[in-house]
Amino acid sequence: MDVFEAIHSRRSIRKFEDKAVSEEDIKDILGAAMMAPSAGNAQPWQFVVVDDREKLNAVPDINEYAAMAKNAPLGILVCGDLSLEKYAGYWVQDCSAAIQNLLLATHAKGLGAVWTGIHPIEERVEGFKKLFNLPEQVIPLGFMVIGHPKQEPKRKDRYKEERVHRNSW
């Protein structure tokens, strides 16, 4: 799949088959995430791979928008590690770039995923920190729910000329 096809055809997937994601696919997806650019090449991310059914079932209690975790075989919690930052505050951008790579790699593997947000909602941040026993300096940004898709969304073109400005507003 070429990069433009991947970008234009990737969609948030919320329905999954009852089928495990292979360790090879998980490693490839995380490897792609770790290729993201980061401020000062600090790479301030940490990843928690979640395939424990009890933990996946507990996720919607913290974030109602992640209800599909109860029916997915895998989740990946993407976190910023403040102790790895080179430039304070850029961890959100760095980890967001890693998430986008992760989502595209997941799609390229024929898998589906949805990005469910955590930061900056303090109750969610604290809930995920507690559920996954995160160290103080590690802040959860998003929880990716991943699996073999049980739906086939269509490709869309979202280009909007009115949102493009050249040289000034």
From TrEMBL:
Residues 7-66 form the Nitroreductase domain. Keywords: Flavoprotein, FMN, Oxidoreductase. GO terms for molecular function: oxidoreductase activity. It comes from the Bacteria. InterPro entries: Nitroreductase, Nitroreductase-like. The keyword Oxidoreductase applies. Its cofactor is FMN. CDD domains: nitroreductase. Belongs to the nitroreductase family. This is Nitroreductase.
